[in-house]
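A quick aside before the break. I want you to see a complete sequence-to-structure record at least once, exactly as it would be stored in a machine-readable document. Don't worry about memorizing anything.
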Amino acid sequence: MADREAQIDAEDQVVIQLSHQIRALPGVTGCTLASPGDDPRQPIGLPPVVVAQCGDTTVVIERPGTLPGMQAVRRRIHAVREHHAGAAHVWFLRRDLGQFGQLPSHMVRLSGRDVEHQRVAPTEQQLAILDAGGHVYWLDGKLVLVPYGYHSFRHPARPEQDWTAWPKWPPHKDPRDDWRISKPRPAPTADCWGLVPITLSSLTRTRVAFHPADAHKIMDELYAAQEGRYRWRDRRAREVYAERHAPPPPQPAPIPATEASATEAQTEPAPAPEHPQPTGQRDAETPPQGTVIPSPTSSANLAQAFPPPPASPPTIPPPPQHLPSAPPARRQRRWTDAFRMLRRRRER
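That is the input. The structure line, written in tokens, reads:
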């Protein structure tokens, strides 16, 4: 009994300190303590609430050490409705290590970077508060953890899609496994809750109301990332299918043997033609080897041995119409060539 009274006193002190923090927030015009639904003969088992006035909005803030049973929670919800009709009922829960250690955190993509968000499995009392229209937050020092719904699902495999063994995809993960968000409040069908951390002072910074606007902005960004992720995976599954079912490239048709031999003959380089130098020019420039040019005295004797040249040159027959393809055979040099050269020189 004494331990329970000490626990109640400690929880009351936590609420009093919270009331000082709430009173210091911008936009808060009034802050009082109350105990709706509490009866000394039948204590409800909850510390007092903080009733804050933010402009025209009334906020009833709970700060329990631990949540009581379902009956006590429902009793407090009904009492707040009776005494503070239309007020927002906010529950600031203590971070329970047992509840927070059940599920691993998950990575989300925000502003082009990976951010880690914690996940919790909601309890029966937390779901009842949410179902009654209340708000469940966790207060960790000066940070407030605002929940959103986390829904696991698998992408459907449609025709002409391939979801298996994607390149550069983690081998232990299936690209069909994904999740979607429900916001700004978790849907009752959510598998678990993800938590967005914001500062306590931001609850009244954007407008004269107790509103987690910063958390809702992050939730909107998570929803936009979800839609982009869904479209990208659906498109990637189609691309992988198209890559793996693409027809093989056509093979070149075989070339017939006759065409292949003709092609090889055309591509084989032709031998360079020989251009023989005219015999007369070569003879005039270079004296034939082994030929001895007679002296002028002997040329006179040779002239007497040969008859004089004819008065008119002999008739030269026209060249043939079709020259032979083979070059003319080189004629052999004789002694008469030497004598003919000497005679031409004398005529000059």
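Two observations worth writing down. Residues 166 and 217 are 33 Å apart (CA to CA). The chain is about 35% helix and 20% strand. We'll return to this after the break.
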